[in-house]
């Protein structure tokens, strides 16, 4: 893997916190990583990276961040492709708001980018509850596993 683009949507800042934490973690391991707001991304922005991570919180009853949803709806109508580019996803949510659709954003993102010919290469990170309490445990562990898997594949 040469470089990684992390594209996130956030309203309250928790998804940005996770994206920044992982980007710093990856940088310490020698992987060039950059983070961007998903809702302002242009499709061509994805081309500059060998691997991508997409992240969004879950709102309501299993919806993406509202700004990310607008972005997604726009791009669903367009004939664009990730051309088998490797990607993974991060979803945030909280079961206390909706137990049935706690972290549905991870599945929505995975489905969307697979339909756009992306190649899902790693198990989604699903963060239930406040991420600060999980940065040095679950989120860090996922980052380590992601690095191991992607470094093996090149």
Structure description:
The protein has 154 residues and is an alpha/beta fold. It has one domain (3-153): Rossmann fold (3-Layer(aba) Sandwich), CATH 3.40.50. It has four helices and seven strands; from the N terminus they run βαβββαβαββα. Strands 1, 2, 3, 4, 5, 6 and 7 form a seven-stranded mixed sheet that branches. It is globular. It starts with a strand and ends with a helix. The mean pLDDT is 93.
Q: Class, according to the CATH hierarchy?
A: Alpha Beta
Order of helices and strands: EHEEEHEHEEH
For the record, give the distance between the C-alpha atoms at the N and C termini, rounded to a whole number: 5 Å
CATH topology: Rossmann fold
Helix content percent band? 25-40%
Instruction: Please report which band the strand proportion falls in: under 5%, 5-15%, 15-25%, 25-35%, 35-45% or over 45%.
Output: 15-25%
Total number of helical segments? Answer: 4
Compute the number of structural domains. Answer: 1
CATH superfamily: Flavodoxin domain
Low-confidence stretches: none
Query: How does CATH name the architecture?
Result: 3-Layer(aba) Sandwich
Mean pLDDT: 93
């Amino acid at each position: 893997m040469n470089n990684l683009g992390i594209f996130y949507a956030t309203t309250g800042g928790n998804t940005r916190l996770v994206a920044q934490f992982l980007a710093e973690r990856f940088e310490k391991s020698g992987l060039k990583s950059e983070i961007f707001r998903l809702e302002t991304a242009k499709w061509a922005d994805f081309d500059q990276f060998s691997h991508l991570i997409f992240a969004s919180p879950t709102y309501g009853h299993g919806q993406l961040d509202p700004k990310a949803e607008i972005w997604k709806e726009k791009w669903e109508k367009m004939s664009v492709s990730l051309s088998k580019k490797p990607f993974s996803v991060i979803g945030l949510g909280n079961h206390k708001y909706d137990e049935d659709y706690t972290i549905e954003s991870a599945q929505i993102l995975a489905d969307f980018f697979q339909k756009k010919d992306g190649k899902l290469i790693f198990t989604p990170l699903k963060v239930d509850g406040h991420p600060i309490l999980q940065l040095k445990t679950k989120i860090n562990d996922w980052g380590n596993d992601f690095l191991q898997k992607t470094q093996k594949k090149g």
